[in-house]
Structure formats: structure tokens, C-alpha cells
Predict the structure.
Amino acid sequence: MGEVHCTRCGVKGGALEAPPTGGPLGQLILNNICRDCWHEWQEMSARIIAHYGLNMGNPLHRQQLREVMADFLQLPQGRKSDAQ
Ligand SMILES: [Zn+2]
């Protein structure tokens, strides 16, 4: 099991076992976010989706959720080109 220096909580923690999503964004999360913080985001995202009535079939809604996630997880910036 790998370890990662998490950009969100600032300490070393257990890494995810696999990228949680495809493409560069998944790699970014895998390399920068610990498992605990990812689980926090999963709970948070479920609440956000329910609260705002987001439809994950809608690309605009997916993009909005992605932006909230980048903010919540404090992902390294400058990766806007990943969004598609
Ligand atoms: Zn963390």
C-alpha cells in the first residue's frame, strides 16, 4: 500500500489503490490526496449532488462538481486543460 503526502490535510497518509477517475485528473488525485480525504469528498459530493440536484449525465453539472472538488481537495492548480 502506497503513501501520499496529501495536499489537503498536509500529512502523509494511505494512498488510494487506483485513480478514482479517468485521465490526468485521476492521476492528480491519486498522487496528491490521501484515502481519508478522498472518502470525505465522496460523502461531501453525495451531499452536494443531492442539495443542488446535480445530474451527473449533464456535462455542465459534472464540470461544476469537478470545480468544487478541486477546491475541496485543494488540488494543485493549473490543470484547467484537463476538463473536458
Ligand atoms: Zn488527506
